[in-house]
Amino acid sequence: MAFPLTKNINYKNNVLHIDNCSIDYIAEQIGTPFYVYSKTRLIENIASCKTAFLSHNIHIHYAVKANSNLQILKTVAEQGLGADLVSGGELLRAKKAGITPEKMIFSGVGKNRTELIQAIKMHVGQFNVESAEELSLLSSLTMEHSSELTSPIKVALRVNPHVAVDTHKKITTGQKGNKFGIETELALLLFQKYLNHPHMKLMGLAMHIGSQIFDVSPYQEAIKKLLNLTSRVQKLGGDIQVLDLGGGFGINYGDKSPLDFTTIAQVIAEETKHFKGKVAIEPGRSLVADIGLLVSRINYVKESQPTPFLIVDAAMNDLMRPALYDALHPIKAVKEHTSSTTRLYDVVGPVCESTDIFAHKYPLDKNLKAGDLIAFFCSGAYSAVMSNSYNSRDVIPEMLVSNDKVNIIRKKISQEHLIKFEESEESFVF
């Protein structure tokens, strides 16, 4: 396994550090489990992304669903990126973080009336519409709120390009049968129907073909399909000014080489070299996954056949990806043992579910014992954002490290906090 250690998350004097802070020291101060991120690594990732894409005039909108912590979003805003958003809550967070509305793309297959009105009133820069029904509702809402509009809202139709990708079936989004996107022929009809709408301008095509993609060929195929559709729309009198190509660039969880920004940027630039409008991408995981760890303490080493269990204090409610997608996050002991002898463990959490398992037959130091710390790598994406309080467990804190300074960027949400929401005396009468 090509372990994803970086200069920001590495061992110093046999102890795992994030930037200049030792993980065991942070654990002593706040307890376990917790998430911890490197701000330096985040800024470096964004810089690499900007160097690759902006040189080809490709616009970058961070996919907020990967990690929506306010301090992460503030860093994204400070670095000048836009945002790809999929809920009213994400709209609120992006605005609070300082991302300007014109740099916001509002995506999502099931936006409701309240969220659409919220986005209209915020003057969001682009709506990615995913169905004829959504477009019809959006049309009526722009008529109702026309007095609040200074210009027609900008709309891109997200199409389903029917491109197969080699990834987990639960993270494909651009194949036949996926709930996302609009069929090509329907998209053409919608462009015709709304061509002269007074408050809504259909001006773009969008796609997102899936996540954890390591091959450029699906992007090439999908872009060709979008460009073909662009030509057909223009023959009908439409004007495609934006191609929004989504994200999904694969990252290294210890088993594959990442799809690096420079490679995919060159492919996109080559495929769109004759397109005269704006080209945009929506990276998420590739910017934030490797900035973070989930740190956990071993509760028990439970002897068992055929494999002993390493029972830790983190659980599936803290890291959902293994249970949802059979994902494997690389695991390391926080204190590196001098012995190179390993033992195979089933690494599991304390939640009362058989799916609360992080890894089967995973090689770790044979001398691990109760009380030792371990870290799950690449936990900066789709970890804290998916966390919950199943089994009445606390929602664990998030930490952000900048050089040798540690900031708590989300406090622990304890059961005491949550119980207060259940003690309300409010009622209503039918």
TrEMBL record:
<keyword id="KW-0663">Pyridoxal phosphate</keyword>
<keyword id="KW-0457">Lysine biosynthesis</keyword>
<dbReference type="Pfam" id="PF00278">
    <property type="entry name" value="Orn_DAP_Arg_deC"/>
</dbReference>
<feature type="binding site">
    <location>
        <position position="382"/>
    </location>
    <ligand>
        <name>substrate</name>
    </ligand>
</feature>
<comment type="function">
    <text>Specifically catalyzes the decarboxylation of meso-diaminopimelate (meso-DAP) to L-lysine.</text>
</comment>
<dbReference type="InterPro" id="IPR022653">
    <property type="entry name" value="De-COase2_pyr-phos_BS"/>
</dbReference>
<dbReference type="GO" id="GO:0008836">
    <property type="term" value="F:diaminopimelate decarboxylase activity"/>
</dbReference>
<dbReference type="InterPro" id="IPR029066">
    <property type="entry name" value="PLP-binding_barrel"/>
</dbReference>
<dbReference type="InterPro" id="IPR022644">
    <property type="entry name" value="De-COase2_N"/>
</dbReference>
<feature type="modified residue" description="N6-(pyridoxal phosphate)lysine">
    <location>
        <position position="65"/>
    </location>
</feature>
<dbReference type="InterPro" id="IPR000183">
    <property type="entry name" value="Orn/DAP/Arg_de-COase"/>
</dbReference>
<feature type="binding site">
    <location>
        <position position="325"/>
    </location>
    <ligand>
        <name>substrate</name>
    </ligand>
</feature>
<comment type="subunit">
    <text>Homodimer.</text>
</comment>
<dbReference type="InterPro" id="IPR002986">
    <property type="entry name" value="DAP_deCOOHase_LysA"/>
</dbReference>
<feature type="domain" description="Orn/DAP/Arg decarboxylase 2 N-terminal">
    <location>
        <begin position="42"/>
        <end position="289"/>
    </location>
</feature>
<comment type="similarity">
    <text>Belongs to the Orn/Lys/Arg decarboxylase class-II family. LysA subfamily.</text>
</comment>
<feature type="binding site">
    <location>
        <begin position="282"/>
        <end position="285"/>
    </location>
    <ligand>
        <name>pyridoxal 5'-phosphate</name>
    </ligand>
</feature>
<dbReference type="InterPro" id="IPR022643">
    <property type="entry name" value="De-COase2_C"/>
</dbReference>
<feature type="binding site">
    <location>
        <position position="353"/>
    </location>
    <ligand>
        <name>substrate</name>
    </ligand>
</feature>
<protein>
    <recommendedName>
        <fullName>Diaminopimelate decarboxylase</fullName>
        <ecNumber>4.1.1.20</ecNumber>
    </recommendedName>
</protein>
<keyword id="KW-0028">Amino-acid biosynthesis</keyword>
<feature type="binding site">
    <location>
        <position position="382"/>
    </location>
    <ligand>
        <name>pyridoxal 5'-phosphate</name>
    </ligand>
</feature>
<feature type="binding site">
    <location>
        <position position="285"/>
    </location>
    <ligand>
        <name>substrate</name>
    </ligand>
</feature>
<dbReference type="InterPro" id="IPR022657">
    <property type="entry name" value="De-COase2_CS"/>
</dbReference>
<keyword id="KW-0210">Decarboxylase</keyword>
<comment type="pathway">
    <text>Amino-acid biosynthesis; L-lysine biosynthesis via DAP pathway; L-lysine from DL-2,6-diaminopimelate: step 1/1.</text>
</comment>
<feature type="domain" description="Orn/DAP/Arg decarboxylase 2 C-terminal">
    <location>
        <begin position="34"/>
        <end position="380"/>
    </location>
</feature>
<dbReference type="Pfam" id="PF02784">
    <property type="entry name" value="Orn_Arg_deC_N"/>
</dbReference>
<feature type="binding site">
    <location>
        <position position="321"/>
    </location>
    <ligand>
        <name>substrate</name>
    </ligand>
</feature>
<dbReference type="InterPro" id="IPR009006">
    <property type="entry name" value="Ala_racemase/Decarboxylase_C"/>
</dbReference>
<keyword id="KW-0456">Lyase</keyword>
<feature type="binding site">
    <location>
        <position position="248"/>
    </location>
    <ligand>
        <name>pyridoxal 5'-phosphate</name>
    </ligand>
</feature>
